Amino acid sequence: MPPQTFLPVVPIAEGPAPNRRKVSYGHSLASPDQEKRAVLSADGPHLAAPMRVVFEHRTRLVKPVVGLREGGSDNVQDREGVRQPIYDLAFSPDGTQLIVAAGAEVLVYDPAEGELLQSLRAHKEPVYCINYSADGTSVDFFSSGDYVVVGGSDHKATLWTAEGVRLGNVCERDAWVWTCKVKPRQNFVAVGCQDGSVAVYQIAFNTVHGLYNDRYAYRENMTDVVIQHLSTDQRARIKCRDYVKKIAVYKDRLAVQLPDRVIVYELFHDDATDMHYRIREKMHKKLECNLLVVTSQHIILCQEKKLQAFQFSGEKEREWNLEALIRYIKVTGGPRGREGLVVGLKDGQILRIFLDNPFPIPLLKLQSSVRCLDLSMNRTKLAVVDDHGVCFVYDLDTKEVLFQEPNANSVAWNTELEDLLCYSGNGVVNVKAGNFPPVQQKMQGFVVGFKGAKVFCLHVYSMTSLEITYTGTIDRYIGKKEFGSAYEICCLGATESDWRRLAFEALEGLDFDVARRVFMRLRDVFFLDLLGAFDKLKAEGKSEPDLFLGEIFAYLGRFHEAAKAFKKSGNHQRAIEMYTELNMWDHATQLAAETKTDTSLILKRKARTQQDRNDLVAAAATYMEVGDYLQAINILGPSGSLDKLLEITRRLKKTDTMALNRCLFFFRKHNHHAYAAECLVKMGDITHLLDLHIELQQWDDAFRIAENHPEFAHHIYLPYANWLAVHDRYLEAQDNYRKAGRLDEAIRVLEQLAKNSVFECRFEDAAYYYWLLSVETLDMIPENVEPSQLTDAHRSLVYVFTKYRKLSEVYFAYNPVKRFIDYPFTPHLPESLLNMARFITHHFQRNSVPNGISKAYVMLAMAKIGKTLGANKLARYAFDQLLGMVLAPDWEEVVEIGALSIRGRPSGDPESLQTVCFACAAPNPLLNSKGDVCHNCQEPFVRSFYSFEVLPLVEFVLDDGITDDEAAVLIAKEPPLQLGRPGDANTDTGSGNNNHSPDRSRRRSENRPSASEIELDRELATLDDGGGVRRGFRPSRSTNSGNGSDAGGPESAARGTNFVPYHVGRAHLLAMRPGDVFVVDFGRRCIPRRYYRAAQPGAAAIVQCGGCKHFFLDDEWNYQYLQRGCCYFCRSKAEQP
Question: Mapped to the 3 state alphabet, what secondary structure does 998-1018 carry?
Fold first, then answer.
């Protein structure tokens, strides 16, 4: 035995040139004759050698990757454990396998892992050469590396698959096959022998396949069976792992012949598209045959002149010996176990064989050999192609030739239609239906099957399907009125246009059965309804062909032909209805005139049609022509054709109430006031005419009607007031609310406006709305009710009036203060802004902070202005208040710095900023804990409502017994020319109050001890008659209420608790100049009049607004009135006082 060798595998990697070194790896061998070859894998990373490897390569390190045998040994041994020499080895083209010729075995290794994949017993003698086939059969089908060519000392070269399946001998030589090579990308194998001979062989594989209907099975890679469903293009693969010799298919059966057995498969399910096969039987017999056929229970083998039927178990059941060689076998189907075969022989005989009948049945005898044959679907016709390329079609009943066609090489009947035949030849496929000429389409290959609209063709090694167009065939059948045959052709596969053409032709040909089936396939409900109507007519005994044709022509759009058919059948009314539905009014009226039919029905139908086409004017005109005015109104109204509608209105009579009301509805809907008014005038409906003006907000017309009909005036005021309120005309709205008796509605609107203004920080508007609220509340208080006679509701109204008036003053003052903080510019002087801030602060002392007013804004303004004007004490107070509040982040630093800086200034306020009381001449601090009153005499300060400066006005009240009317008369009179001092006894006219009265003396001693000498001279200026005689008087203060008692007036909350106004008598009133006296009169007896006299006549001109009753300095009033044209506070546009 030769010495053992090993097979190391080493990786090769390139490296830089300086690292070049010489590496030796392996064991020494006893016999150098054994050292045959070394191979390098195709991709380069592995090298295999059966000897000691000595090579030089640019590498840092070369070492074995893995040994190819287990147990740590590189030696190759046979199955008996005897070490074998390695004669040859080769890598597969993709480098995934390494084959080794070791003795008489061929070993297949995984070069990456060193695992033995399989061992092949290729020869009985040692194998000296091996190689992979680059392409086993043809360039077009197999991939690289599918086969292995093995040569050895048994004089044979064999072909194996890559999976280790032996396919057969390539050749058998007279000497050892020492080497063999495969021509790249071709199927040629060169064999070199020990005797010096070289031979080249071409390997060719026959196509092994089977077909039944649309199931096609073929061999792939020599060991696999692929089943293809030609209709759905689904595929399934069966790996047999052995050489596949023959394939047969029949229904759900698949038979595969292997070298030593036949395997029968069956489908899992009965589904026609199912592709899952399972093994049914295995016939373990080595059989030789030319053709293999399978049926439901048998395997049929063809051996030249002999047919053998085997059961699936392997038992031979029957055998037929024929007279000539068998050329073609076709399974024609039949009961299970009794299927029939049609056999074509070389001598031209055609036989029918049944599996349960031992005797063949002769069918026909041709003059030449049979090449191809097929039976029609109903087995009544036989198509045969002979060796001369002629296709004969026979009638099996009469044995007559129906027709023959030249240039054919294969033929197939359609499996779904009896009279449809397909044959191929000369690169075209011919489809012949019945006796019509064939229709040709280009195609390469042989026709092997014909199902539906698909022809299955085998071209070289591939099976293709060709879609057949039946349009020409359908046209031929339709032309011959063979609608049933045309329908059968369409069922195989037709376009929608073909179906519709067949349906209409069958319908016109009165073949309703075919037409119904076609329309059902098309889902054309329209024509199905027509056919249903025909069925009803037939059931009623009305089966007139002309009537049916008329309906059909009408449905097909051939209307004049339909009308002729209807006339022919005597159905004139049906023709009129048809023309009417088609809007062919001239033809309809013409037929109606011929048949003396009422044309009004046609005109109404015409009007409805015009209405449907949105030709509304024409439809209305048609209705008017008929006299149906209401329908015309209903058409013209929604479309807005008001001119046409007015024309109809003028045509109508006054008694046509329904039509007039409909016209009125559309006039009002389209807001055409003039037309609606004309309609109402024609109807004589004044109430609705007034409602129309109100609804359309035509107020001038509404009031014009109210002038002519005063009884309807009360219907206008309330909606007019609502409209005015919506359009921000609140004064006019209030006036109309009053006229409508809805003061509550006026107040509700103003309250909402006031709240919105506060929420939106429009405080000037808020002040105005609260003033309007006070006015509206005042209007709800009775005029001539004494304070003692007020009810609780009236007292509540007086309180609300006072609250709204005070809120209006506070918001009015707050607006400039907030703008001073938020904006960099203001039209007011710092002193005026300081007065406003003080006025608001005094209000806070006895009242809650109104909504929307920020105390922080007021204090910050007071602090800034006070610091600027030197009012350090006031500024310090304001900053201290701010430090105790939660402020915005950007305010905190300002307030803290201001609070620190103000403490570095002297604590005090300048005297120029202090308010001097014009009643007692006492100076007052800038902030008074008692409110906006004198801290000494409690006299409330009267301010100008622009700069909020304190005005030189002193309040007084009338003595008891003096009425307001009498006081007004006395004040209006000019003072007398001579008059003593009012304090003398003879000048007192009964007032009861003189200079020596106890009350007066006590008031002077308690309240004003420092100004007793100049009290009257300062508060009540003496009157000069121009002649040098001074007339003066000295009024007295009293705690008696009398006419001057406080009854809850608007300023009662501002007065001090100890305030006692001056009382004046008739002499004092007569001595006063009218221009120096101001009266605040709200026109309600329950709210007493307030009397004021200028303490410094001529020093400062004072103006009182007649609307809001507030006072202004004359310069301020004139400036604002000229700028705005109204009062700065109440926006009243009354004449300047």
Answer: HHHHHHHHHHCHHHCCCHHHH
d(CA 479, CA 108): 71
Average confidence (pLDDT) over 502-508: 88
* Residue 949 burial (C-beta neighbours within 10 Å; 0-12, 13-18, 19+): buried
Q: Using 50, 70 and 90 to split pLDDT, how confident is the model at 798? A: very high
Residue 534 above 50 pLDDT? yes
Question: Does residue 913 register a pLDDT over 80?
Answer: yes
Give the integer Cα–Cα distance in Å for 132 and 120: 14
pLDDT band at 110 (very low <50, low <70, confident <90, very high): confident
User: Binning pLDDT at 50, 70 and 90, where does residue 801 land?
Assistant: very high
- The residues near 768 (Cβ < 8 Å, ≥ 6 apart) are 808, 1130, 1131
**Position 735: which residue type?**
D
Instruction: Give me the DSSP letters along 109-160.
Output: EETTTTEEEEEE---SS-EEEEEEES-SS-TTTPPTT-EEEEEETTSEEEEE
Query: How many beta carbons lie within 10 A of that of residue 976, not counting itself?
Result: 12
DSSP string, 857-922: HHHHHHHHHHHHHT-HHHHHHHHHHHHTS---HHHHHHHHHHHHHHTTS-S---GGGSEEPTTT--
CB atoms within 10 A of CB 1119: 14
CA distance 296 to 91: 46
At 162-203, the pLDDT tens digits run 777 888 888 988 888 888 888 777 778 888 888 878 888 888
Strands 1062-1064 and 953-958: parallel
Q: Which two tokens stand for residue 890?
A: 């950007």
pLDDT given for residue 831 in this prediction: 92
Q: How confident is the model at residue 543 (pLDDT cuts 50, 70, 90)?
A: confident
Please choose, from the candidates 692, 694, 656, 654, the residue with its C-alpha nearest in 3D space to the C-alpha of residue 675.
692
What DSSP string runs through 204-257? -----EEEETTEEEEEETTTEEEEEETTTTEEEEEE-SS---EEEEETTEEEEE
> Which residue carries 């039927």 as its tokens?
309
Strand, helix or coil for residue 827: coil
pLDDT at position 295 is: 93
Can you tell me which residue has the tokens 């020499």?
Answer: 85
How far is residue 131's CA from residue 179's CA, in Å, rounded to a whole number?
Answer: 9
Helix (H, G, I), strand (E, B) or coil at 439: strand
Tell me what pLDDT residue 1056 has: 54
Q: Which of 189, 120, 190, 126 minimizes the C-alpha distance to 154?
A: 126
- Contact present, 268 and 282 (Cβ < 8 Å): no
Average pLDDT of 388-398? 91
CA pair distance 140, 142, nearest whole angstrom: 6
Q: Identify whether the C-beta of residue 1092 lies closer than 8 Å to the C-beta of residue 1117.
A: no
Q: What does the angle CA 270 – CA 454 – CA 211 come to, to the nearest 5 degrees?
A: 55
What mean pLDDT is reported for the chain?
Answer: 78
Rounded mean pLDDT of 633-645?
84
Q: Give the DSSP per-residue string, 730-783.
A: HHHHHHHHHHHT-HHHHHHHHHHHHHHHHHTT-HHHHHHHHHHHHHHHHHTS-S
Structure-token pair, residue 490: 């369409």
The two structure tokens encoding residue 63: 């070492």
Residue 1010's pLDDT band (cuts 50, 70, 90):
very low
**φ, ψ of residue 655 in degrees (nearest 5):** -80, -10
